[in-house]
Structure formats: C-alpha cells, structure tokens
C-alpha cells in the first residue's frame, strides 16, 4: 500500500503508517496551523534618522501543525501505543497526508513534517479509555501540496525539420519546428518546486521558463544512460543521484519555481538526442 492510500474521505489522516479517521480507533478532534499563514521572515530594515522601514523581501518560515486526536481504547487497548509509535521525535520529515473540507478545495493533500511534541494528559478521559492526545508536527517547507503529482516524460528536444531545398520551387516549404515545449499547471495558490530529469545523450541541457523569461542551463555532457536530476526547490543538480553538478550552472541561469496558474517551459540543449521528464505538485499556503 502506498503512502496516503488510507486517506479516502474528509477528516482522514495518515502519518508514518498510522491511519486516523472513521473505522479506526482514532478520530480528528481539532487541526491547528494548517489553514494559518506561516510566520513571515521579513527583510525590512530600519531607516536611520527618519520614520519607517526600508522595504525588503518577505519569505515564509516553517509551518507547525497541531492535531488533537480522540483515542478509543475501549476495544483496542494498544491504541495509545500505536499513536505514540507513529509520532516519534528524531525521525526525518515524511508526508502527513490528509483530506480536510475546504482546505485546498477539499483535495487530498500532504505536508512534509516530523513529530516534535506530544501532550497526553492523564485525567478522567484517560481513565475511561477515551483520551484526547495532542501531537505537534513541524514542517520546514510551509507549502501544502497536492498528494498526487503531475508529470510529463519522454519530451524531446526542440528541433527544426524539413525546410527550403534548392533549387526553389513553388509553393515553398518552410519546414516545421518541434518546439520541445510543454505547459505546466499549478492549481494551487503558491509557487511550487519542479523536478527535472535530463536523460542523455545531451550536451549542455537547459530548461527555459518562457512565461517568467528565466533559463536554467548546465554546462555538462551526458552520455547515453546518464541522468541529471535537478530539484528547483532544494536547488540541487545531481548526476547518478549523488554527484553534484550545481556548480556547472551557466552565467545568466536562474533558479525558478512554478507559479500559480499555467506556465510554458521549453527543453533545449546544444546537441544530443536525449529526453526530459518533469514532475511537480500544486501548492497552497
């Protein structure tokens, strides 16, 4: 079973293999921090000898999500132990998958987070085996992502075919042009990272965001069977999954994210017959 497969209806959650929702010993009582705006890291600076601030850039910090879970131990005496085992501090971030009404249009969503705190008061609710346990998760990436990614694969290079031949005869054949382009749609409200995979043979591969007028190009040679995987969120470029090639970005290249809405992206290279694959998730804040 894939991550998130147990989430099938409103108020279902899944984290670290634990399913929460109807048909389980766990029910969601409260979710905080999911629909809130994350803290803003402001770049504003104090103006000297005058009023006000110099307006800098704003960036978002991380997101904290707090979930109150009703635990029914009347029929499953190990329910609390199951919950405690799922929300363990010290683990790497992993998907918190959920479906909450009117969040991201009611779509199935995910936030990459890790457990940091748990509150389990021992009181009358505990005595009667119906405690409410509060767990807190921190996400370094504040985006709320669509659970299902969008992807394209096997895109060929932009290339011209046919064209004029001599001696010229009428009607003239101007040839055709394979644009090597695709449209990428982000159904959310906030810019989202893209993952590009260049497969060789390619010489100096690049992607051009025609909507934003930004290009991301790498001065590398990929042989047949080689891959260059570029993550525009983490700002990494790896050959073979381990060897960094971020330092081969050419002058004038700019990292870019996919903005809300639809943008046009073109795949190109100096030469080669390789292909491009791309993957992304719609994102909300």
Topology (elements, then pairings):
Elements: E1 12-15, E2 18-20, E3 26-32, E4 40-42, E5 45-46, E6 53-54, E7 58-60, E8 63-71, H1 79-86, E9 94-99, E10 109-119, H2 124-127, E11 132-139, E12 144-146, E13 150-155, E14 159-161, E15 176-178, E16 181-186, E17 194-199, E18 202-203, E19 206-209, E20 214-217, E21 221-222, E22 227-231, E23 236-239, E24 243-244, E25 261-268, E26 271-272, E27 275-280, E28 283-284
Antiparallel strand pairs: 1-2, 1-9, 3-8, 4-7, 5-6, 8-11, 9-10, 10-11, 10-12, 12-28, 13-27, 14-15, 16-25, 17-22, 17-27, 18-21, 18-26, 19-20, 19-25, 22-23, 23-24
Molecular structure report:
It is a single chain. The chain has helices spanning about 80-85, 125, and strands at about 10-15, 20, 25-30, 40, 45, 55, 60, 65-70, 95-100, 110-120, 130-140, 145, 150-155, 160, 175-180, 180-185, 195-200, 200-205, 205-210, 215, 220, 225-230, 235-240, 245, 260-270, 270, 275-280, 285. The chain is mainly beta and about 280 residues long. It has 2 domains: about 10-40 and about 55-145, Beta Barrel (Elongation Factor Tu (Ef-tu), domain 3); about 150-285, Sandwich (Jelly Rolls). The strands form 7 sheets. Strands 1, 2, 3, 8, 9, 10, 11, 12 and 28 form a 9-stranded antiparallel β-sheet that branches. A 6-stranded antiparallel β-sheet has the order 13-27-17-22-23-24, with no helix packed on it. The protein has a 4-stranded antiparallel β-sheet with strand order 16-25-19-20, with no helix packed on it. A hairpin with a 4-residue loop joins strand 19 (about 205-210) and strand 20. The longest helix has 8 residues, at about 80-85. It starts with 11 loop residues before the first strand and ends with a strand.
């Amino acid at each position: 079973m894939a991550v998130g497969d147990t989430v099938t209806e409103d108020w279902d959650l899944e984290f670290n293999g634990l399913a929460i929702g109807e048909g389980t010993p766990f029910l969601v009582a409260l979710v905080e921090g999911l629909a809130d705006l994350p803290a803003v890291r402001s770049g504003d600076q104090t103006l000297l000898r005058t009023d006000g601030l110099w307006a800098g850039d704003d960036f978002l910090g991380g997101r904290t999500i707090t979930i109150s879970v009703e635990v029914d131990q009347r029929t499953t005496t190990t329910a609390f132990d199951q919950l405690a085992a799922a929300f363990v501090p010290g683990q790497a971030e992993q998907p918190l998958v959920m479906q909450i009404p009117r969040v991201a249009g009611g779509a199935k969503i995910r936030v990459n987070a890790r457990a940091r705190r748990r509150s389990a008061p021992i009181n009358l609710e505990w005595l009667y085996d119906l405690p409410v346990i509060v767990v807190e998760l921190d996400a370094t990436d504040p985006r709320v992502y669509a659970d299902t990614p969008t992807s394209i694969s096997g895109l060929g290079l932009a290339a011209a075919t046919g064209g004029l031949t001599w001696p010229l005869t009428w009607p003239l054949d101007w040839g055709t042009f394979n644009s090597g382009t695709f449209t990428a749609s982000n159904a959310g409200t906030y810019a989202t990272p893209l993952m590009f995979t260049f497969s060789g043979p390619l010489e100096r591969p690049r992607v051009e965001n025609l909507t934003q007028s930004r290009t991301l190009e790498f001065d590398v040679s990929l042989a047949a069977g080689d891959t260059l995987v570029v993550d525009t969120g983490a700002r990494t470029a790896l050959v073979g999954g381990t060897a960094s090639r971020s330092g081969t970005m050419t002058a004038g290249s700019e990292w870019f994210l996919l903005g809300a809405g639809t943008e046009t992206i073109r795949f190109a290279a100096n030469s080669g017959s390789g292909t491009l694959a791309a993957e992304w998730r719609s994102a909300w804040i």
